[in-house]
Design brief:
Transmembrane segments: 27-44
Order of helices and strands: HHHHHHHHH
Protein name: Ancillary SecYEG translocon subunit/Cell division coordinator CpoB TPR domain-containing protein
Keywords: Membrane, Transmembrane, Transmembrane helix
Mean pLDDT: 81
Structural class: mainly alpha
Helix content: over 70%
Largest sheet: none
Number of strands: 0
InterPro entries: SecYEG/CpoB_TPR
Domain Ancillary SecYEG translocon subunit/Cell division coordinator CpoB TPR: 29-122
Distance between the termini: 98 Å
Length: 218
Amino acid sequence: MSNTDSFIDEVTEEVRRDRLYAGFRKYGWIAVLVVILIVGGAAWREYQKAQARSAAQAFGDQITAALESEEPEARIAALKAIETAEPGAQAILSMLLAAELAGADDDAAATQTLQSVANDNAVPLIYRQIASFKALTRSNGGLSVQERRDGFQTLATNANALRLLAEEQLALLDIEEGDTEAALTKLQAILVDSEVTAGLRRRASQLIVSLGGTLDAA
């Protein structure tokens, strides 16, 4: 009886192995494909990361080399020669170029370069906001007081990371136009804002005192 049971067990095990092998031949390629996709996907992601790191390093090296030139004209030419397809990198490059143009007393070109970044929808929003802010703060950039005011008012929205800095600039425009009361109102509002930084609080306080205001609201 035991021999019969043993024989039946062996036959059952053999049938199970045959079915398993047949199933693997029929569907095993799916499992292999899944493994390949997982491993291949991870390898591709690592390759992309390595490529991105390499491109970023090369971009940084080009900028460093361009800024090492002693003559402003040479730095400007070197920065203009750098090419990048990444919008964020291009925005950074353009802002560096604008700084060099301003240093070479070409304020109009500096402002135009910054505005081109600010108006490029392909550029990340924060870079566009920074470029717009920098363009508006250039008093010699060819923009009228009203154009600058309109620009700063656009930046002084709740969703903007540069909101309080834009409010500070609006207060400075009020001072420029002789509207002390409007400037004091804006500066006092900055002092009580929960997002005000220590540096901005200090500047606002100094302006309030210099304008004859008080710091009671702070």
